[in-house]
Amino acid sequence: MDSCLTLKYAYGQLGIRSELALTDLIVRETNGNSVLHGTSEPSWNDDGTVFNGHCILLLPDSGRHIDATVEQFEKVREQGGGPLVGRSVTSSEAIQPGQLLPPGTRLAVQRGEIVMMYTLSHLSVADVIDGQPWIIQHAHRHHRAGVNLASLLLQALRMPEVIGRARQAPHPRLRALLRAIGEAPQHVDDNRDLRFVLPGPNGPQSLRLDEIPLPPTTPAPYPRPIPARALDATSP
Fold first, then answer.
1. Residues in CB range of 217: below 8 A, 6 or more apart
2. How many CB atoms lie within 10 A of CB 162?
3. Residue 189 in 3-state DSSP?
4. Residues 6+ away with beta carbon under 8 Å from 230
5. Contact at 8 Å (CB) between 43 and 123?
6. Which residue from 218, 232, 233 is spatially nearest to 15, judged by alpha carbons?
7. Phi-psi category of 177—alpha, beta or left, where left has phi over 0 and alpha has psi -120 to 50?
8. Do residues 118 and 91 touch, judged by C-beta distance below 8 A?
9. Per-residue pLDDT tens digits for 69-87
10. Bridge partners for 37 per DSSP
11. Is the pLDDT assigned to residue 235 strictly greater than 50?
12. Which of 74, 124, 150, 180 falls between 20 and 30 A from 38, CA-CA?
């Protein structure tokens, strides 16, 4: 849960939409043995501090899904490979970019000698996560961690061997951030936040990624508020 929420804010800072998804996971070996992880009925413990279940992150606009903590499971860890990034292709058809996956969707990924089969829960994020006190209490920490993670990524994208491709990425906010930071030096402050040193009206200023001014036409970071007209349309 922590990893998915941190990644969600990190992608959001770069203008990339992502959605948490509740899921179970069957890890199947070539000999037919299989192990079930997670549950189709995710829940919280009695005091609301421990999440019982598994979750992944969906990137609907690029048709991918991410399991940042998949190597917590022994058989997956034995294969190596790190966090899982797969294409969101179901057992029956490809998911179109931007389309949200319906409950019950199955996503299969092969890694080495195992197949990982995810099944999205019929319970939605709104049912289990949104409004949950632990999530609300720690939202600022996940946001901060996500901003710092996105900052580290931008540092990497400024490297000469990748900056050309990064400037062509299909994400206007990412491109605007790369232009804004340029070759600005960076440092870690006393709170362990990564900051970029940029020119300001009164001299150099040290800014976190979410504090850097961007042109007014730049898309806002995710998550974005639902427009009032969309809320009106769903009202009874």
1. none
2. 11
3. coil
4. none
5. no
6. 218
7. alpha
8. no
9. 999 999 999 999 999 998 8
10. 25
11. no
12. 150
Cα–Cα distance measured from residue 66 to residue 10, given in angstroms and rounded to the nearest whole number? 13
∠ CA 86-91-94, nearest 5°, is 65
Q: What is the pLDDT of residues 153-170, one digit of tens each?
A: 999 999 999 999 999 999
Which residue is associated with the tokens 């996503």? 107
Tell whether the model's pLDDT for residue 228 goes beyond 50: no
**Rounded CA separation 207/213 (Å):** 9
CA distance 219 to 173: 6
Q: Under a CB-based contact definition with an 8 Å cutoff, are residues 68 and 57 in contact?
A: yes
Give domain limits for the chain. Answer: 2-128, 150-226
- Provide the 3-class DSSP secondary structure of residue 109: strand
Q: Which of the four pLDDT bands, split at 50, 70 and 90, describes residue 94?
A: low
- Position 195 scores a pLDDT of 97
Residue 143 in tokens: 């946001």
Q: Omega of the bond prior to 223 within 30 degrees of 0, cis?
A: yes
pLDDT at 90: 57
